[in-house]
Amino acid sequence: MNLAIRLILITVGLGAIVLISLALTKETYRRYQIQKEIEELRVQAEKKERDNQQLKGLIEYFKTEDFQEKEAKEKLSVQKEGEKVLLVKGSRVGEEKPEEEFSNQPAPKKDTRSNQRKWWDYFFATF
To answer: Which of 12, 19, 78, 126 has the fewest Cβ atoms within 10 Å of its own Cβ atom?
Structure first.
């Protein structure tokens, strides 16, 4: 009987060691995931803080007289007393011209065929 009891104790002991090892591994992995999530949140918080500081700087700039004067001139065509304004014919400053104005090639012709006709030509036109 002594041998049978030893085998049972060894089996129970090994089973306990395996169960404890699995529990420790699971807990270690869970802690790793939590630490990883904490670090990601810390990075996000730092980014949000930088964005917040940037926005605060923009707000302060928008409050300045220089910005308000620039916006009034550009958008409302306001001028200071005694200031002379030069008008240039063409597009406004800051507006982008359509690509057609920059291209030396003529614009492609618009296809005026009906959708059914386009499909018909697609499937049955000779190549």
So the answer is: 126
Residue-wise burial string across 45-76, b where 16 or more C-beta atoms lie within 10 A, e elsewhere: eeeeeeeeeeeeeeeeeeeeeeeeeeeeeeee
> Phi and psi at residue 80, in whole multiples of 5°?
-75, 160
Q: Whole-model pTM? A: 0.46
> What span, in angstroms and rounded, lies between the C-alpha atoms of 115 and 106?
25
Distance CA 14, CA 108 (A): 80
Here the tokens at position 22 are 């699995």
- The more confidently predicted of residues 26 and 77 is 26
In this predicted structure, the answer to whether residue 52 has a pLDDT above a threshold of 70 is: yes
* Cα 55–Cα 56–Cα 57 angle in degrees, nearest 5: 90
32-36, 74-78, 91-95, 108-112: range with lowest mean pLDDT: 91-95
One-letter amino acid at 93 equals V
Q: Please name which of 69, 75, 79 lies closest in space to residue 92, comparing C-alpha atoms.
A: 75
